[in-house]
Amino acid sequence: MAEAFIVGAVRTPVGTKKGALAGVHPADLGAHVLKELVDRTGVDPAAVEDVVMGCVSQVGPQALDLARTAWLSAGLPETTAGVTIDRQCGSSQQAVHFAAQGVMSGTQDLVVASGVENMGMVPMGSNVKFALDAGLSVYGEGWAKRYGDQEISQFRGAQLMAEKWGYSREDLERYALESHRRAAAARQAGYFAEQIAPLAGVTQDEGVRPDTTLEKMAGLDPLREGWVLTAAVASQISVGAGALLIASERAVERHNLTPLARIVQLALVGDDPVYMLTAPIPATRIALEKAGLGIDDIDVTEINEAFAPVPMAWLDELGADPAKTNPNGGAIALGHPLGATGAVLMTKLVHELRRTGGRYGLQTMCEGGGQANVTIIERV
Question: Secretion signal: which residues (predicted)?
């Protein structure tokens, strides 16, 4: 089987829903990172065979195959195709998988994996609004027969996880505070500077709150009466984009590209759709087993902080080192632009491995429907 290499990784700053990036059209967000990726790698854009882009709310300005629109909006060759995919929060991590699989199969040599989401312009849930407004079920009769009419939501899933693993509100808030502390320290130290392509005058991630405290968090109302979840322990509604160039060994040589990391293992697992957010745990176990690695072999992990219970339970179940997990903060501090987050996390992971000299990196994230992708990479 052919090897797949990451030869470029770039992202926008992650903006807040009312920040400076919220008015940037999603196609232009995507175009910005695609053009920057081409410029930074020096690749001939006409040699890129496909653009695989994650986007969750594919409606309005994010409709009509955003991958193709963004590539053309960047002024790049019309000969390159594009496809937009939705695996919920893992959409652009799945884009990395599809791009890598195309290269590893030997059928493609250069593929862009990317993701875009402007949650300020296209609110979360916009793509299901039609069904709800029409009084239609999003799930249908077959689902109802299997799971009944119970609430299916990421919010309930996070609360169920907190209850199952016995996390108190204070436990969650301590985790959230550490996410902000790490992100603020990394931003101050300039760890993100190389990976970010500034846009609209924004040079840094907007969501980090270096001055937040446990006392401030304790003053927030729970998301629902009797719950331990508050907005402080959830990922932020955000705006952003990311892009990576995946190349075969043949393309690396032909186009004089510099590999940053090698794709080691790709895994995808489904789990309980009611709990929804637990799949990173079994998915990580499967990926590590397939790769012949243990959790202690992983030098850096990026696990999406959709809600604090997700990484907390993952850490407890895997016995992973908290210091090596989201070392520069996660989505609680930095934000979670849905379809873009997979590409953003992989960009962070690649650059952090290179900054620290670590060998193996692992990325995973919970996804709607009770799914999770896991990607293991090796620094080159």
Answer: none
